[in-house]
Backbone:
């Protein structure tokens, strides 16, 4: 049956190309769309993950660091040290800032670096150093530098303040905004915070229980909410999950339907054209089930070949897109390739069922009629 399926499949080369092409397109669509979602999601949480803090302390009622503002008194450090299990406390200043650059609206998430602890330093430095960042200086992301043709030593204005680029970092491209860094005092002036900070970063002693310390802080210090690193990262990524996941699900479903339709229609068309051959096989003793297996094998072969081609093209397009459009982000994970392969097999099996009724209705006697 396998060899019959291969023969039938490669006899109709045009239909084979259409079938494989349709599956490849569906696979490409699914992998790229999912890759953009995963890339965006990963970037939203990458910087918080890199910060060496076990607990984040924020103002009670705040949702996430990107879309709501947290304001806490800047004199709480001593109170945290009074709680058993706390080893180190750092302050975090960070806020989205919109400004005009060369006639275009830009959005930066500016972080104030505590140069003594380095807890909020850039993800990775490409040029320059964050240790000696001075007032009036800024570190920008390499994607912004490339897109806007900015270099170390250049300047631009943010809300009336002229800032000189002293360094370029990487890992801070989140598509909708880019990370940038100034020193702590510069950030306080830019944000006009006075005696406020946005978050406290708590490093715990090795033997400490994070949940217990979290509970103790919330009991001892009113008006604060404490999150573990995982909870804080999840909250930062929540906006992506809630906003984009339904859209991604719809687009993935469209991709699956395209694959099913193409495989089903080409298989159905081939079945009609080979009705006489199927009738002969029925006449010599093959059952409906055996004939259906031939169609299933054809669909699976077309599906697997289409998957391989689609996956290769997805990698190529993802690479080229990031090279051409620097702010484009994709993250193609092995686990995603695995479930897309499973989805391709499902597409092939469903597509094979479309001509099933036609196969079962073939009458062997019709073959011998003149």
Residues:
């Amino acid at each position: 049956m396998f060899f019959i399926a291969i023969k039938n499949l490669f006899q109709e080369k045009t239909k084979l190309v259409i079938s494989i092409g349709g599956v490849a397109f569906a696979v490409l669509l699914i992998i790229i769309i999912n890759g953009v979602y995963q890339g965006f999601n990963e970037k939203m949480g990458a910087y918080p993950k890199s910060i060496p803090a076990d607990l984040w302390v924020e103002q009670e009622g705040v949702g996430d660091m990107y879309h709501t503002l947290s304001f806490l008194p800047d004199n709480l450090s001593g109170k945290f040290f009074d709680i058993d299990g706390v080893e180190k406390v750092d302050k975090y200043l960070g806020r989205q800032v919109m400004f005009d650059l060369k006639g275009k609206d830009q959005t930066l998430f500016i972080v104030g670096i505590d140069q003594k602890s380095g807890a909020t330093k850039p993800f990775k430095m490409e040029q320059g150093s964050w240790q000696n960042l001075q007032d009036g200086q800024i570190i920008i992301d390499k994607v912004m530098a490339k897109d806007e043709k900015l270099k170390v030593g250049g300047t631009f204005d943010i809300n009336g303040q002229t800032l000189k680029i002293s360094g370029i970092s990487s890992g801070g491209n989140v598509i909708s905004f880019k990370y940038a860094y100034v020193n702590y005092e510069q950030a306080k002036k830019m944000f006009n915070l006075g005696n406020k900070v946005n978050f406290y970063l708590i490093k715990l002693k090795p033997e400490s229980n994070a949940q217990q310390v979290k509970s103790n802080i919330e009991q001892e210090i009113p008006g604060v909410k404490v999150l573990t690193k995982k909870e804080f990262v999840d909250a930062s990524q929540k906006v992506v999950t809630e906003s984009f996941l339904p859209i991604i699900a719809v687009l993935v479903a469209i991709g699956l339907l395209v694959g099913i339709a193409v495989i089903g229609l080409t298989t159905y068309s081939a079945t009609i054209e080979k009705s006489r051959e199927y009738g002969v096989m029925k006449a010599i003793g093959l059952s409906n089930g055996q004939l259906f297996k031939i169609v299933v094998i054809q669909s699976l072969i077309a599906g697997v070949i289409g998957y391989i081609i689609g996956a290769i093209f997805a990698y190529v397009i993802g690479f080229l897109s990031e090279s051409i459009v620097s702010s484009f982000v994709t993250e193609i994970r092995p686990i995603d390739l695995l479930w897309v392969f499973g989805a391709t097999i499902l597409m092939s099996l469903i597509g094979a069922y479309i001509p099933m009724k036609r196969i079962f209705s073939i009458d062997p006697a019709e073959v011998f009629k003149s």
